[in-house]
Amino acid sequence: MDFSQLWLPQLSLLLVLALPLLVLFLKQWKTKLNLPPGPPKLPIIGNLRQLGDLPHRSIRELSKTYGPVMLVHIGPLPMVVVSSTETAREIMKIQDLNFCTRPGSLVLEHVSYGFRGIAFSPHGDSWREVRKIFVLQLMSAKRAHPIGVIRADEVANMVASISKSASSSSSMSKPVDLTQHIFYYTATLMFRIALGRSYHGKHYDNAKFMEVVYKVGAVLGSFSASDYFPSSPIAWAVDVVTGLRGRLHRNFGELNKFLDKFIDEHMERGDGQEEDLIDVLLGIMRDQTSGFRITIDHVKSLLMDVIFGGLSTSAVGMVWAMTELARHPTKMKKVQEEIRAIVGKKGKVEESDLQQFRYLDMVFKETLRLHPPAPLGAARECIKPSKVNGYDILPGMRVVVNAGGIGRSPEYWDNPDEFRPERFEASEINFKGQHFEFLPFGGGRRICPGLNMGVFNAELGLANLLYCFNWELPSGTKVDIDEKIGFAIHKAGLAVHKKSPLLLVPVEYNGYSLFSCILILYNDHGAARECIKPSKVNGYDILPRMRVVVNARGNREEPRDPSGEYGSVQCGAWTCKPSYCFNWELPSGTKVDIDEKIGFAIHKAGLAVHKKSPLLLVPVEYNG
């Protein structure tokens, strides 16, 4: 037998498969590439061992050794980290067009319905058209008013919920899990903005829907071997054995059923009702004159972007802001004095008040400088051969901007680890990605398109927490600033959350019975109704989708609203707004910690760092 007949075909096939690698090797040898420096890597796992549990911190330290352009390997995949304002400007402005696409991902492709949304889609004509729809239709001035009504309603619900939690303790020193209240506020707010209503108590339940969203978020934050070894059948098998693929299909399928129900309900209802985001998208889908046609999958993917993109950004910023203020009581007092002086005795902070809060704006900027939700941003991918700071960046390489490291660099900030909002007093730095020493929402073409809504959500919620309450730590505790990495919708980016819940204690405001007011608020108005079309009641305008309740115990003596500006038509939870005004202090003998922990939190598809322990404060009477 001629054995050459057996091995010759295999040898020929091997040479054919090896030819591209040989060509690539010769090409690289010929051009003498100048790749960025980086730490030594191990076979298979690359630099994963050096990155540890908090990669953003490890990368910050490594960049001090290897410079502003550093090459690390996530498994076999090369990733370039830029850690200076000059290199960030190169990536996000000068060469933005070459670094504005996203790397592929098994999980993200599935959850984004084949990359039909904004957050995860590669750069191209489809992405540009979908982003245009998002910005012009969903984030337009036309949508500002209905979203503002929803935002005010959910802020009121959050304040009422905190008041109710505080009233359940006779000693009025019961700690409140502020982290939980804040995350529930942002979750219900984004559900209503994206889906048109809360669905709570109907055939859809917020709690169930939120549970499904968290399950999908946990999958988004999970390790996928296929993302790091894209063409390996072994990686595919690893994802099967670990259960990732099973969880992905099961949890995403459950979420998809919810979206189908929401969309079907909108398609079946008649005209004449106020449009929400689903209505707007369905209208665009039906428009035969549009040059770019969107499908139901585009609608679902954009809804996912809105829900996941808005959930954790605002919540993480609010929790870190309250954490830092609890650690710095003089700063908290200063911002509360500003808010209360401007708002006076209106009983609540309104959206129109925000532009007057100069110090609150500085507090929020300083919070995001120290604790950006995604300190490494969302990963970009190089499209064609480029040079950054003299180093070669090859097509297919992932590139991340170390926003967290830049924000804590002594090269750009005095005493960078100190919480000092006053540093922004004479500064024109904003959130728009134009100042490369401050990039909490990214920059360039891939800047977060919903950043204005996210900032409004956070600042209005934060302002009302500081106006209505004083905050204390529970007795014998301190505030940690430990971080954790958890789900946030920046896959390949990290979102950093406080590791533990933030626990603080609220105290009753003098002059009104908090408990009786809560009874009126929750028990005396009956089931809420919803306005269908513009109406007038007692001369006041009632808009579609406003909730309306009837005060069934109006014949009994009730706490009177001293401001008197709302008369007999009052909105939602603000009926008893003076009762919600607390001051917040730390419990006796305690400090605020800022320890972090790694864990899941709804943000953009990647990992997020949380406060390690709950924020515990004590509510104290505020004589406003």
Description of the molecule:
With 624 residues, the chain is α+β, with helices and mostly antiparallel strands. The chain has a domain of 427 residues: Cytochrome p450 (Orthogonal Bundle), CATH 1.10.630.10. The chain is 44% helix and 12% strand. It is built from 19 helices and 18 strands. The strands form 7 sheets. It has a 4-stranded mixed sheet with strand order 1-2-7-4. A hairpin with a 5-residue loop joins β16 and β17. The longest helix has 32 residues. The protein is globular and about 80 Å long. The N and C termini lie far apart (101 Å). 49% of the residues are buried.
Count of alpha and pi helical runs: 19
Give the end-to-end Cα distance, rounded to a whole number of Å.
101 Å
Give the number of DSSP strands: 18
Indicate the percent of residues in helices.
Answer: 40-55%
Global structural class? alpha+beta
DSSP strand (E) fraction? 5-15%
What's the architecture of the domain at 128-512 and 580-621, going by CATH? Orthogonal Bundle
* Topology-level CATH name of the domain at 128-512 and 580-621: Cytochrome p450
Largest sheet: 4 strands, mixed
* CATH class descriptor name of the domain at 128-512 and 580-621: Mainly Alpha
Transmembrane segments: 6-26, 302-322
GO molecular function, one term: oxidoreductase activity, acting on paired donors, with incorporation or reduction of molecular oxygen
Family: Belongs to the cytochrome P450 family.
Keywords: Heme, Iron, Membrane, Metal-binding, Monooxygenase, Oxidoreductase, Transmembrane, Transmembrane helix
